[in-house]
Amino acid sequence: MTRWLDEEEQAAWRAFYSSTTLLIDRLDRELQHDAGMPHAYYEILVVLSESQGRSLRMSELAIKTRSSRSRLSHAVTKLEARGWVKRRDCDDDKRGQFADLTEEGFAALEAAAPGHVETVRTHLFDPLTPQQVEQLKQISDAINASLKS
Amino acid sequence: MTRWLDEEEQAAWRAFYSSTTLLIDRLDRELQHDAGMPHAYYEILVVLSESQGRSLRMSELAIKTRSSRSRLSHAVTKLEARGWVKRRDCDDDKRGQFADLTEEGFAALEAAAPGHVETVRTHLFDPLTPQQVEQLKQISDAINASLKS
Q: Most buried among A60, A89, A146, B97, by the most CB within 10 A?
């Protein structure tokens, strides 16, 4: 039997869905406008910049960006065309490949970061109290755990 | 000067971004698999089903689904091809158009709803306490207000 949402759950779900899609759209639009990249590319650059030697195995990069292999491969091809990322074969694993962040890619990330962080702060943190930020972290962790299990 | 995120804000933002993108991806995949439609189409059908006469002016439908006119028009063309929605010219406004939900569209929505609601319940409400649901509603309202202002 379907466990339908009651009125309060319906209201919470709609507010949550609307706020997240609006926020993600806004981040995407502003990054595209200011830095010429969608948020998905920005996230790949961030993950690589934080990895040892600014380099990561493609399979790990896919996990860390919650991306399918094919979607990631498509994005990395675009990033390679801009000179921001370079793919490199693994020495010890003929099937594996690494993605390396280039100097140009790191510079593009550094240029994009201030505007992006400002958007996140303006639309996520400024409207919330510190207590709500903590609540949001716990709520998000619980949802994440459910989706990953 | 950039107002960078501190460690806690960074952690909250990453958990929030990861949980929302994972959840939206999951909803999209399950609706696509079970009902042959992405979540964006489902939302259009829901909004029409709740409108008077199951019909809405295209411009209002765009606002209610937080969609650009061109993105909505593209989706409605696809929904028309399935016989789920029909566009109709306004009698009193030559430039305006209505989108009407058809009987087939309403039936498609009814068939898709139980599975979709179950996914939302499993991954959003089951992992949260009632108090967290209330917190999430308030947090989402605050983010929405910031994005709409």
A: A146
Contact list in B for residue A22 (CB cut-off 8 A) is: 66, 143-144, 147-148
pLDDT tens digit sequence for A30-89: 999 999 999 999 999 999 999 999 999 999 999 999 999 999 999 999 999 999 999 999
Give the position of tokens 């390679």: A80
Q: Residue B77 belongs to what H/E stretch?
A: helix B69-81
Interchain pair B15, A137: CB under 8 A: yes
Residue bearing the bigger pLDDT, A74 or B2: A74
**Which residue's entry shows tokens 């006469």?**
B53
Nearest alpha-carbon partner for A118 in B101, B9, B126: B9
Strand ranges inside A58-117, DSSP E: 85-89, 97-101
Instruction: For residue A130, give the chain B residue with the closest CA.
Output: B9
Share of chain A above pLDDT 90, in %: 90
pTM: 0.88
| Bridge pairing between strands B55-57 and A97-101 | unpaired
Q: Which of these, B148, B13, B15, B20, lies nearest to A125 by C-alpha position?
A: B13
Residue A99: count other Cβ atoms within 10 Å of its Cβ.
27
Structure token pair of residue A69: 């292999």
Candidates A118, A132, A136, A149: best to mutate against B (most CBs of B within 10 A) is A136
